[in-house]
Amino acid sequence: xxxxxxxxxxxxxxxxxxxxxxxxxxxxxxxxxxxxxxxxxxxxxxxxxxxxxxxxxxxxxxxxxxxxxxxxxxxxxxxxxxxxxxxxxxxxxxxxxxxxxxxxxxxxxxxxxxxxxxxxxxxxxxxxxxxxxxxxxxxxxxxxxxxxxxxxxxxxxxxxxxxxxxxxxxxxxxxxxxxxxxxxxxxxxxxxxxxxxxxxxxxxxxxxxxxxxxxxxxxxxxxxxxxxxxxxxxxxxxxxxxxxxxxxxx
Length: 250
Fold this sequence. Notes:
The protein is an alpha+beta fold. 52% of the residues lie in helices and 10% in strands. The two termini are 24 Å apart.
């Protein structure tokens, strides 16, 4: 699994434990609020938003795409079980659309409660990603300013330059998941020297400046990112290098 997918399994483990405790105490408002917040904030506003590029554009058998599908499956299965006491018909309908697996109960009503695997817990990784999500919020604010100033129209076509001190730069470079995927932009550059004409100071990180501009290169017709590799493939001149490889493989 990728770092991001491991982080989401950690979040799922936390949610299962919170919901289980609330159910045992007959605290149904907490169950509902916890699951609603997880679906709206963790999944819709973050995880699923980041995964769109990977799921739509990578090859069907790509390891990163399969990693995402694995975690989405675990999340969907767990949500069906945790939501069944509240919205039984919806949970049952979703359960029937889940892929089959060995020993899958015919109905979610017959399923055992969610089992949290020990390896899902990874507090060290979770803390690392919580800090990155704070940086992501700062980047989103800088992108919004760039949109208002008409420097970019669609954030997906932007290049983000992070001007940071050595400690922050080292932290950002440690992520194995591409930062442009996390920030949902075309390109990300991390620098410890230099300036940027439109740099916006981060509110939560005193030693971080964020510059936003239209990414160099042309827009890929498939992933919609601006990449300098667009136009260099003789067979697929309107695609970036990554998309051309996927299409050629098919």
